[in-house]
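The instructor's notes for this session suggest beginning with a concrete chain rather than abstract definitions. Hand out the sequence below and ask the class to guess, before any prediction is shown, which regions might be ordered.
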Amino acid sequence: MKQFLEFLGFIALVQGSGGLVYELTGKLRWGITQRWSALDGYEIYVSVALIVLAVALFAAAGSRKRS
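After discussion, reveal the predicted structure:
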């Protein structure tokens, strides 16, 4: 379970940071925040939320015992 949480955290971190890089620089248009039209206008907020989610997932994975 710990590795699964770390994997989800990594994916959320990559997607969130990729979204922020795109919104701030206009390069690297490959993240999930650019693909979903329902997120138009909220890309920065969603990217920050994904990074916060990643930190929470890493913290949850760190608090679990190794199985």
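Then share the key points. Helices lie at 2-25, 32-35, 43-63. The first helix runs from residue 2 to 25.
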